Amino acid sequence: MPRVRALHALLLALLLLVLPTVGLAAPHPGAAGHPMDTTADLGSGGVTLSRVSPVVAAPDEPITFTGVLDVEELGIDLRPPADPAPTDTGNDASPGTTPDADPADPPVASLEVRLGRTPIRSHADVATWVGSSDAVDGAVLARIDLPGGHSPDTARIPFTVTIDALGTATSEPYGVLPISLELHLPEQTEPLRALHTFIGYQVRKEYVPLALSWIVPFTVPADLDLVGDYGAERTEAWQRLVGSDGTLRSRLAATGEDMVWIIDPALLTAGPLPDPEPDEPDPSETTTGSGTGATTGTGTPSGAATGSGTTSTTTSETTEPTLEGTDAPEVPLTNAEREREVRAAFARDLLDAAGGRDVLLLPRHDADISTLPATTDTSTGAGALREALDPTLDVTAARDALTEAGARVLPTLWPADPVWTGDHDRAFADLSGAATAGPWSVLTTAASATTPPTGPTPTATGGRLLPIHPALSSRAATGTTAATSTDTPGSIALTTGLALMADSLVTLNERAGTTRHALIALDRDLDTSETIPGMAAVLDQVPWLSTAPLTRMTGTVVFTTTPGDTAPDEPALTPERAALLTGTNERLPIAADLRINTGEDLATRGADTLAQLTSQRWRTSPEDWSTAYSPIADQVSQTFTAVHIPPRDIVFLADTGSMRVTVDNTLDDGLRNAYLSLTVDHPILRIENGPQPVEVGANSRSTVAFDASAIASGKVQVTAVVRAADGTNLSEPTTFTVRVSPTSDWIYWALGAVALVVIIIGIARMALRPRPPRD
After folding, report:
1. 643-744 homologous superfamily
2. DSSP for 217-271?
3. Contact 230, 81 (CB under 8 A)
4. Which of its termini does the chain have fewer beta carbons within 10 Å around, N or C?
5. CA-to-CA distance for 248 and 597, rounded, in angstroms?
6. pLDDT per residue over 713-750, tens digit each?
């Protein structure tokens, strides 16, 4: 018995020693596919993923991750280890070396690929995973040590780590797995960085592939320089947008042939015709004289020759000798001509590349169609909004040009508000321009329909509801190079594309057995030109997705009657601003016709600026709307307030004669095509001719003559007013007094008698003058 007790005691002691070891070696629950994540947010800066191959793997297929580590940002120590102490080996080896030893360089870091939280069931799960960077204690799928031996000046260390096989992690026929790439530095127990991403897998196909279309916008941003005066800043702004290295030029080159474009028709033109820019003054030209600065009759500019002064001009010119047969030097283009040349070249290239492609054609300048008021709103502001938006629907010329280029064109509204209701649709149908370009489609969310459509679906008016997928579009918007200053465009495109793959799986699994078509609409205001190809390349490798042109589902969509959320940015085109815009638009042609020097610019660039102010791009910078509007509005309004007629009394001492009226112009531009008319309150004075033309120089005055006839003596009130050719008043009516004193017939007889007496006296004096004696 004592021997048995001793044996039992020995077994118990051994058991107590073994149990803790077994507990430590037991797999963590996370290794079975449900790992528990820690809460520390480590960040992923310095770990850049450049390639994942394949994106979607079979269970027994290896998956390779390739990338680089930023040495400085991660604080990786690349200094060589200290030399070992010298030893006496009995030979002539140099101090500090061991001839027989060849130790490997110790690792400077290690990288683990761990399985994260599974499964991914919702878009919120996707967002949570990619938005975090905490370490996880899930199963280690792969691990690699990064050896040392690098130069201390090394800035980036490449890495490649491979998962041999996913094995039992693939619990579904197909799916995605959350993956955490975690970086460890030597002698640290906790990871330094964690990069969260996804990998896909497929065991077998149990779905109908989700059709996918990319909607790539070609619109104009809210940049004041694009609508300012012609000059270097404006030309450079258009160069940045559509020039050889411009944003939209890069986007044009980045989009694949199967992507859908949505285009502002303004980009298919060369822009407004430029007004010739004034030449720079010649420094060798000098002017001397004593000009009065006033003008008479034709409004001669200040400094020109007048009756009270002289003007002389001396020009010193140096003419370079020109060899016979050589070409004359080319005249450099003005800024306005350079802009037009750049825009025309981009318009040609855009049309050339549109052939064979689906093109959604927006209202002109991407008008803010969401501001359209309901048909029941009869207020003045509502009428002004309709009047401002209606002309933007005339896109016939752009549609015809695209059709001729071989594009499949759909005139399309892209409202800022995420929901397009039946009230919106009825209000739009009431616009006179709605039928100009044919039936209009609406690019909006599926929530705009009473029954969410499964893809592009016909509407009652003949267009289509093109349902944007909010989650996929929002995810694609994160793939912009503006989001980070350290990651490369390729890395951003890859990680965003992998997240899009995860979101697409969630979308697919909502109705995996149904044919559906999702649209990814890229954000107007974000530049994803550098990442579009990379994101699309990732999704092209996903078997449950198929890139397709716009389809046409069966049935007819019915728009909802329930208003949805409004756009996050308030509209810049308010009813009050629309009223200002329409008022200025009405008077602009008159003002342009009146101005001598700036009229052509006002009629072209000014009108184009006002048209651009209907765009919804100003929602992001409403204060810039006013900045762009004010110079044009001031130029127009000042034209109608700068003319004055100084009041003065006139004495008219004749039966018929000329009566002169002075017109002052306080504008810094000359006026023409104006007319001065006089109205008399009593018939004793009659104006013999009608309104007389007025042409007056900048900051000058002009005198206009009228033929008048006096019928009787007395005082009359004469009212003078300057009007444009269409009858619009340009000056306040000015009333002045005219004293009329016509001459009678007796004065002519008296004057004749006096003349006769003078003649008789002269003859008599000649006859009575003594004659000199004859020799």
Report:
1. Immunoglobulins (2.60.40.10)
2. EE-----GGGTS-SSHHHHHHHHHHHSTT-HHHHHHHHS-TTSEEEE-GGGGS--
3. no
4. C
5. 34
6. 899 999 999 999 999 999 999 999 999 888 766 666 77
